[in-house]
Amino acid sequence: MRSKPISPLKESEESEKTPLSNQPKRRVVTITTLCLAVVAAAFIFLGIDLWDVFMAFPAFGSFFVTRFMPPNLGAIPNNINLIVDTIFFAVAGTGISSVLALACGLLLSEKTNSIAWLRLTVRFTLSILRNVPVLVWASLLIFIFGIGSIVGLIAIIFATLGFLARSYAESMSEVAGEKIEALRAVGASKAQMIFHGILPEFIPAWVNWTLFTFEINLRASAILGMVGAGGIGIVIQSNLRLFRYHNALALIATLTAMILLTEFLTNRLRGKVK
Amino acid sequence: MSGKHVKLSPASWKLKTAGILVAIAAVFMISFYMLDLNLVRFVERLGNAGRVLALFVAFDATVLPDAILEMLTSLAIAVAALAVGFIISIALAFLAAANTAPSKIIASIIKSMVAIIRAVPSLVWILMIVASIGFGNTAGMVALLLSTCGYLVKAFASSIEEKGSDSIEAMRAVGANWFGIVLKGVLPGVIGSFLSWTSIRFESNITESVTLGMVGVGGIGTLLMRAISQFNYGRIVAILAVIVSFMLFVELVATALRRRINK
Description:
The complex is a heterodimer. By secondary structure, chain A is mainly α. Chain A folds into 2 domains: 18-67, no CATH class; 75-273, MetI-like (MetI-like fold, Orthogonal Bundle), CATH 1.10.3720. Helix content of chain A is 77%, strand content 0%. Chain A has 10 helices and no strands. Chain B has helices at residues 11-34, 39-46, 49-55, 64-96, 104-119, 122-133, 137-162, 166-173, 178-214, 220-229, 233-262. Chain B is built from 11 helices and no strands. Chains A and B meet through helix 1, helix 2, helix 3, helix 4 and helix 5 of A and helix 1, helix 2, helix 3, helix 4 and helix 5 of B.
């Protein structure tokens, strides 16, 4: 059980059954037709020509090569602290929300919280937190906290909390199987069941989910600056608006390198936890 | 529980996990300290929260028709990019997955390009794209297409690689060509997880599409940013209500679809 990596996506279960009728096939055809109709409607509604979309790639490529290249490395030293801040934002935001989400996860899972109304309230609050994009949270929180880093941090915590708590709760319900039954059978209290039955089993999933959101938050914290919430985003945006493409490219490249490096490190860590 | 301690987990594993947890905690403390957050001002401003929230007790229903139309635009950009990205990603994933790649060089080129696309935040992509081809729905779709492919190619390729190469070897042994192997041998086994990944991506695509609007590409994000910069609280709340209810609806549909696919 423990050696099994818990991936963000649950494996789709292979159905070994041989179809005896063409009923499923007809359903597939119906669903495919429906999807195609929705996609066609989307294109018509937007008035987008697919040809234009594909032609945009070479246009972007040539613009990139002629106007963005080469990066102006001189822009990096002045902004390196902002780029490093981006990573600190992601770490701090992910850390705080993982602790909060653990509490919310315990409140959310049927296995650990038997009070129905409390479960529903938490679920509803979290789904609102989750469904408002992080940039929207940031621009709303500015009304309360004013422009600054704290807004970025809270926005990341809000957006992450909703997602993490749901994932934690799902993982907890998954691991809470036989062990819980055994503990209940010997008369363990609720707290004992949580601390001995669920949490030890849950740690690998906890680390995996947290690292997964960390990667998302890394990108989120890079853009929060665009609404005034601190970090490198604002500098990249203003460089682009002022047509200083060489400066912008240098910053984007540094940011990208740093994100890739951080991801490499978290992947090593993830391999260890498995 | 008569004082006898039952070991539920092996000690070595516990030690390693504890070590990793301590390291993570240390990194977290350093980051928090380095951010140099002004906690005094935070507490001060928190006192204002009630007053500010009172301003948001408003609802401007007149903006609803516009908001719904713009939300549909955001939704349509997300759907269009997802559909095109799905097809492109399937092709690229089979060229990139270790066990189906016809050429190692092409595979590593695709994999590293996808890694770069994923590493650059999509909002940065959109700013660069807007700089070169101008504002509009097409720019939004191009940006979303990039991040969709960045996500799906990696996910699809790992699904293909998980499938293993036994059946591929067998088909190669009986002389099937590449297209035969991919279409008849591998695709039927992985299409379920492909659809699962796509439905997950659908939700992020909508979030991204709304966010792209906030830098001026079009869609509901633009409308929201305008209301925010005008301090029009009633409008902000109404637009937010539209966003949240659409997203909740989409989440319900996506979850239901996933359950169907996994069945």
